[in-house]
Amino acid sequence: MPLVRIDHSDARTNPAEIAGAVHDAIVSVYGIPERDRFQVITSRPASTIVAEDAGLGFERTDPVVIQIFTQRGRSVDQKQRLYAAIAAALEPVGVASSDVFIGYVENGPEDWSFGFGRAQYLTGELAVPQA
């Protein structure tokens, strides 16, 4: 059950396609259910997204910043495959792979509440997903 935040400039006119491509990549690599989709998509002025060179020697033209919050337990290989799948899925919707910036945050079952002020993984209302 990843929670995905996607920030992009308001110059991009296809936020639904970007969000769909990211979700499709996660479903494909992690095997989560299609309707296990929680995304926050934010379009903002380009000047409010700063993603400079991290020493890799390339320039970003119009970054898409993706934050993935998910249960811990996936392997390094799974994460690497996910990053590659997201970049590949975004190319056809007009996002260059050099413009894809991903931050990945892991947490545990105690860190989620799906409503009603309860941690449903802890109460047993939801089964803890397996990696």
Automatic annotation (TrEMBL):
InterPro entries: Tauto_MSAD, Tautomerase/MIF_sf. It comes from the Bacteria. Transmembrane segments: none annotated. Signal peptide: none annotated. This is 4-oxalocrotonate tautomerase. It holds the Pfam family Tautomerase_2.
